[in-house]
Design a protein that fits this description.
By secondary structure, the chain is an alpha+beta fold. It has helices at 26-32, 36-39, 50-62, 111-126, 141-149, 182-198, and strands spanning 11-12, 16-20, 66-73, 78-89, 94-102, 131-137, 153-163, 169-178. Strand 7 (153-163) and strand 8 (169-178) form a beta hairpin. The longest helix has 17 residues, at 182-198. The radius of gyration is 16 Å and the shape is globular. Residues 16-180 form the N-acetyltransferase domain. InterPro entries: Acyl_CoA_acyltransferase, GNAT_dom.
């Protein structure tokens, strides 16, 4: 098993830097929550207080199969959200990208496409991944559209796949990108990032 898959370097882009999540990021994460109802509608997270933020970070760090990152907007020097690798499987050269949420203030900007570009470059180019997955609630149209724009393909629905915060069962929409898809997806994603940075 390659230990490189569990290493977590800082991933530095033009506007966005992905820093390994640490306890010190909790205040910044809480400050990034500018519309909790909208940001956390479809997620298992829900940050309303400093205790919530501290617990979120602890939960992320305590998961041995997750590498969580703070998403930092370098132009303002502030945390604007978080994202993670998870379901890391070096043997089959696959992993998933998710546990992502971003401040509403950066929606439509460079934060999401550039953070995903950084994660995908590391996965495919550095680690030699053959497959990257995304999972989202079947009803989360915004997330599904965002994942599709990355160049990932919809592969189906996983019934009763995850428990929602309210205890109900979620059907998960499964998306994936393979190393065969990556060259074209990279070109498209790099163009999107350049366009967002030029605005």
């Amino acid at each position: 098993m390659s230990t490189a898959w569990y290493e977590q370097p800082v991933l530095d882009g033009t506007r966005i830097r992905l820093e390994p999540l640490a306890a010190g990021h909790a205040p910044g994460l809480l400050a990034a929550v500018d519309d909790a109802d909208a940001i956390f509608r479809w997620t298992s997270a829900d940050l309303r207080t400093r205790d919530d933020a501290d617990a979120f970070v602890r939960t992320a760090l305590d998961d041995p199969d997750r590498l969580p990152y703070a998403v930092v907007d370098k132009s303002v020097g502030a945390v604007v959200g978080t994202t993670s690798y998870y379901l890391i499987d070096p043997r089959h050269r696959t992993l998933a990208v998710g546990h992502t949420w971003l401040s509403r203030a950066v929606h439509g900007g460079a934060a999401n496409p550039e953070s995903k570009l950084l994660l995908l470059r590391r996965a495919f180019d550095d680690l030699g991944a053959v497959r990257v997955e995304w999972h989202t609630d079947e009803h989360n149209a915004q997330s599904r559209a965002a994942i599709t724009r990355l160049g990932a393909g919809f592969e189906g629905l996983l019934r009763k796949h995850r428990r929602r915060r309210d205890g109900s069962w979620r059907t998960t929409a499964l998306f994936a990108m393979t190393d065969d898809d990556w060259p074209a997806a990279r070109v498209g994603l790099e163009a999107r990032v350049a366009d967002r940075l030029a605005r």
